[in-house]
Structure formats: C-alpha cells, structure tokens
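User: Sequence in, structure out. Go.
Assistant: Echoing your sequence, followed by the structure tokens.
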Amino acid sequence: MVKKISIFLIAITLLLTIIPIKSHALSMKDEIIDEDKYDPGTITSSDIGSITKIVNPILGVIYYLGTFISVGAIMLIGIKYMMGSLEEKAQYKETLGPYFIGAVLLFGGINILRIIYTIVEKTL
C-alpha cells in the first residue's frame, strides 16, 4: 500500500514538473533570440526581496507540513513496531529505510535552499 502511494506521489510530482516546462517551451517555439543582443541584466537587492516574499512562505509550508507528516509517520511506525509480532517487526524495520531517506531529502533540500539564499544575499 505504501509503495503504491509513493509511486503515485512520485508520478504526480514528475507530471507537475514536466508539464509547465513543456508548455513554456512550446510557447517560445517561434521566438528567436539573437545572442549578440541578449542582455540578461543584473540581480539587484530589490529582486531578492521580491523573490524572498514569494519563496519563504512556500518553504515554510513545505517544511512544517513535512515535519508534521514525518513525525506522524514515525509515531505510527513505532507504535506498530511495538505492538507487532517478530515478522511484522522485521517488515517495519524495512519501511524505516525509505522513511529516513525521504526525511533527509525533505529537510536537506529545504536547508540547502536556505543556505544558497543566505550565500546569494550576502554577495549582493
């Protein structure tokens, strides 16, 4: 059951990331950019401020929702582990591996984004 839910969530995530990229690429299909005239501009501190106002609430929601879900999941696995038979305990030990990988990816990814933001903010 958990594998099916995990596969479903991964498939939804992939679809949500691929569809906007493909539609954006299709909308720019006819646009030709002359690389000699292209000027990307520079990033100013006001640009960072506007990005921060958008990204910080999103990261906060992901962080707190992920924390809530991961704590709930580890509590559920722990209770099932304490109440289970020897075979069930072995099965729950197997489910802990993917759980910890997911938790590390969630918290590590958010913290890496915060570190990158701090470095970029200090350089400007």
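User: And one key feature?
Assistant: Residues 47-123 form one domain.
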